[in-house]
Amino acid sequence: MEVILAESAGFCFGVKRAVDTVYEKIEKGGIIYTYGPIIHNKEVVNDFLNKGVKEVNSLEELDDLPKGCVIVRSHGVAKDIYEGIEKRGFTIIDTTCPFVKRIQKLVNVQSKAGKTIVIIGNDGHPEVEGIKGWCENKAYVVGSKSDILELKNVIKDDVYVVSQTTFNINKFKDFVEVLKNICYDKNVSVANTICNATNERQNEAAQLAEKADVMIVIGDSQSSNSRKLYEISKTHCERTYFIQTLKELHLDLPANANLVGITAGASTPKNIIEEVQKYVRTYF
Ligand code: SF4
């Protein structure tokens, strides 16, 4: 039986950069905080915790803590969070992914120019919350066609559209069309800010799942890009397993299985992927 691991499985450039930065900082020593979990992966976050890195989730929490450095994760944070951290006398190590930084800048510039900002993405997701926090006025987050229709009588100015980096490209295109239709009397500018790493990972998962008898998607249940990989794989391969670590894998292979495909979300560490891959190759 063949086992194929997707080439794009595991840490993307932005996540790797953020995780490496934390480990480098641990090596150097000092008091380290992360603003929110650095990545959506319990294994990695627990490892940081064991090495003395504390996670904070609000500016107020910092008020009672000894001074140190605060690492901003790859999802980025709102402008006022940077200001609040500095005001409290903490240093910032910024690992916001450059692709996310670009969106924050676009939103800041275009909102200052008087455009109404529409973010296509999942409201409440940390990256989206961060992007919203760079808008000089109210930004509208839309995650469904009905969300867009609700904007019909709300939008008064020209519109500038961006996307959460991990949003599905086809849905994004659809949503833009709906938005253009309801804003037919306005100027609608669109920046496709979906990250290529996400596209490539999703396309590869779909292609692999199409030919696989069984698909294994490894990722944290909190990771939206991992969940999307699962959904995509499941549409092409009925026997798709979504696991966080090898411990959760209870593989039930059909007798005629010829190919097992493995992929993993952007926040899944290499060692977990290797463990799963080795297990499947050894025991099946
Ligand atoms: S998915 Fe893309 S945008 Fe998000 S952290 Fe990774 S490289 Fe950056």
TL;DR of this structure?
The protein is of the alpha/beta class. The chain has three domains: 2-10 and 196-283, Cobalt-precorrin-4 Transmethylase, domain 1, CATH 3.40.1010.20; 13-96, Rossmann fold, CATH 3.40.50; 99-190, 3-Layer(aba) Sandwich (Cobalt-precorrin-4 Transmethylase, domain 1).
Q: What does this protein structure show overall?
A:
- Strands 1-12-10-11 form a 4-stranded parallel sheet, sandwiched between helices. The chain has a 4-stranded parallel sheet with strand order 3-2-4-5, with helices on both faces.
- The model has no long low-confidence stretch (mean pLDDT about 95).
- The protein has helices spanning about 15-30, 40-50, 60-65, 80-85, 100-110, 125-130, 145-150, 170-180, 195-210, 225-235, 270-284, and strands at about 1-5, 30-35, 55, 70, 90-95, 115-120, 140, 160-165, 190, 215-220, 240-245, 260-265.
- About 45% of the residues lie in helices and about 20% in strands.
- With about 280 residues, it is an alpha/beta fold.
- The chain has 3 domains: about 1-10 and about 195-284, Cobalt-precorrin-4 Transmethylase, domain 1 (3-Layer(aba) Sandwich); about 15-95, Rossmann fold (3-Layer(aba) Sandwich), CATH 3.40.50; about 100-190, Cobalt-precorrin-4 Transmethylase, domain 1, CATH 3.40.1010.20.
- Bound molecules: iron/sulfur cluster (SF4).
Shape descriptor reads: flat
Q: End-to-end span in angstroms?
A: 7 Å
Per DSSP E runs of 2 or more residues, the count of β-strands stands at 12
Name the CATH superfamily classification of the largest domain: 4-hydroxy-3-methylbut-2-enyl diphosphate reductase, catalytic domain
Helix content: 40-55%
Q: How many domains would you count in the coordinates?
A: 3
CATH class of the largest domain: Alpha Beta
Low-pLDDT segments, ≥5 res? none
Strand order of the largest sheet: 1-12-10-11
Helices and strands, in N-to-C order? EHEHEHEHEHEHEHEHEHEHEEH
Spatial extent as radius of gyration: 21 Å
Count every helix, treating DSSP H or I runs of 4 or more residues as helices: 11
Bound molecules: iron/sulfur cluster
Major β-sheet, in short?
A: 4 strands, parallel
Named CATH topology of the largest domain: Cobalt-precorrin-4 Transmethylase, domain 1
Please name the CATH architecture of the largest domain: 3-Layer(aba) Sandwich
Structural class, judged by helices and strands? alpha/beta
